[in-house]
Specification:
By secondary structure, this protein is mainly α. The chain has one domain. About 75% of the residues lie in helices and about 5% in strands. It contains seven helices and three strands; from the N terminus they run H-H-E-E-E-H-H-H-H-H. It has a three-stranded mixed beta sheet with strand order 1-3-2. Strand 2 and strand 3 form a beta hairpin. The longest helix is centred in the last third of the chain and has 41 residues. The two termini are about 25 Å apart. InterPro entries: Zn_peptidase_2. This is Zinc metallopeptidase. Keywords: Membrane, Transmembrane, Transmembrane helix.
Length: about 230
C-alpha cells in the first residue's frame, strides 16, 4: 500500500512550482494588455530609472524569449524580453523597474545580492554533484555518501533562500521608483504589485521545494544511521 504522506509530499513538490508558473504567466498575460497611462515602453522606463539613479553606464537591451528579462552584473546590462522592451504596459513597466532594481542593488553593494553572486558558482557545482552522492547513498545503503550529498545540496538551498530577499527588495525598489517618477498612477500601482508578487511566487516556490527535499533527505539519513 502506497503511503499517503509520501504521495502528498510529491504532490506538493510537483504542484507548487507548476502553480507558481501558471500564476505568473496568467498575471503577466493579463497586465501586459493593460497600457500604462505614461505611455512609456519598458525600455524607456528602465532608462529613466537608471539615469535618475546615476547608472548611465548600464545598458538596456532587448532579449529573446518569453519573460527572459534579467540584469547581468558582469556586463552591466538590463535585458528585457521583446514585448516588455517595446510595449507600454503595466506588466512591462513593473518588470523593467524590477530588473533595474537589481542594478541599483549592484551599485549600492546590497548585502544579499553580494552573497548570491558569491554563491552562484559554488551552488551550481554542488547542486549538480549532490544527487550523485545522494543516489549512491540511497541505493548502496551508504549513510556517509548520503550525508555528503545532503551537505552539497544544502549549499543550493542556502542559495535559494538568499535569493528571496534579493528579489523582494528589487520589487520594493521598483515600486518606489515607478511611483515616485509618476510612471504609474492610481489603480496601476495595485496592478503592478500583482505582477511583481506573482513573479516573486516562483522564487518562494523554488525555495520551499528545495527546503522540503533537504528535510526529506535529512530524515532519510537519520533513519539510515540508526539502522546501521
Amino acid at each position: 500500500m502506497v503511503d499517503l504522506g509520501f504521495l502528498l509530499y510529491f504532490a506538493v513538490l510537483l504542484l507548487l512550482p507548476l502553480y507558481a508558473q501558471f500564476k505568473v504567466k496568467r498575471t503577466y498575460k493579463k497586465y501586459s494588455k493593460v497600457r500604462s497611462t505614461s505611455g512609456m515602453t519598458g525600455a524607456q522606463v528602465a532608462r529613466l530609472i537608471l539615469d535618475q539613479n546615476d547608472l548611465k553606464d548600464v545598458k538596456v537591451v532587448e532579449s529573446q524569449g518569453f519573460l527572459s528579462d534579467h540584469y547581468n552584473p558582469m556586463t552591466k546590462i538590463v535585458a528585457l524580453s521583446s514585448h516588455n522592451y517595446h510595449e507600454a504596459s503595466v506588466a512591462g513597466t513593473a518588470i523593467a523597474a524590477h530588473e533595474v532594481g537589481h542594478a541599483i542593488q549592484h551599485k549600492e553593494a546590497y548585502t544579499f545580492l553580494q552573497w548570491r553572486h558569491k554563491l552562484v558558482p559554488v551552488a551550481n557545482i554542488s547542486s549538480n554533484a549532490s544527487w550523485i552522492f545522494v543516489m549512491i547513498g540511497i541505493f548502496a545503503g551508504m549513510s556517509n555518501m548520503l550525508l555528503l550529498g545532503i551537505v552539497l545540496l544544502a549549499v543550493g538551498v542556502v542559495f535559494q533562500i538568499v535569493t528571496l530577499p534579493v528579489e523582494f527588495n528589487a520589487s520594493s525598489r521598483a515600486m518606489t521608483e515607478i511611483v515616485s517618477h509618476g510612471v504609474i498612477r492610481n489603480e496601476e500601482e495595485k496592478h503592478a504589485k500583482k505582477v511583481l508578487n506573482a513573479a516573486a511566487m516562483t522564487y518562494v516556490a523554488a525555495a520551499a521545494v528545495a527546503v522540503l527535499e533537504l528535510v526529506r533527505l535529512v530524515l532519510m539519513y537519520t533513519g539510515m544511521s540508526r539502522s546501521e
